[in-house]
Amino acid sequence: MKKLLNEFKEFAVRGNVMDMAVGVVIGGAFGKIVSSLVADIIMPVLSLITGRINLTALSVTVPAALEGAKPITITYGNFLQTVLDFIAIAFSIFLVIQAMNRLKRKKEAAAPPLSEPGREEVLLTEIRDLLKNKD
Fold first, then answer.
1. pTM given for the model
2. How many CB atoms lie within 10 A of CB 43?
3. What is the pLDDT of residues 12-25, one digit of tens each?
4. CA–CA separation, 55 and 80 (whole Å)
């Protein structure tokens, strides 16, 4: 039992597990931000463009096959709304990642290029290589 606890302790405090835990917490917070962006900004704009269509109200009712049974309601509008939410969220995340990559590229481009080694360094490198090959 003690060995099992020690193995669990090693696993729990390992760097990768801690990094993953931080990623999950930050991912949850980021998910809330993206969901708010979609629900509070993007979807109202799409609603204006599409004429304020309420997709969740769309449904089809299939009459009951047996007497006395209730008819079946297929609410395909919920599915369409979920698909639209997914597309909006995926596009929002794409735009955020694209912006981050653009900033990263600018930072890499701003880094000064490595300078060529001086004449003395080249000469010392050649001497070192000659001494290494001599043995």
1. 0.52
2. 15
3. 777 677 788 888 89
4. 7
Distance between CA atoms of 135 and 124, rounded to whole angstroms? 17
Q: What does 17-83 look like in DSSP terms, one character per residue?
A: HHHHHHHHHHHHHHHHHHHHHIIIIIHHHHHHHTTS--GGG--EEEPPSSTTPPPEEE-HHHHHHHH
Terminal Cα-to-Cα distance of the chain (whole angstroms)? 57
Residues in the chain, total = 135
Say whether pLDDT at 119 is over 80.
yes
Convert the pLDDT of each residue in 85-104 to its tens digit: 788 878 888 888 898 899 88
Exposed / middle / buried, residue 38 (Cβ in 10 Å: 0-12, 13-18, 19+): buried
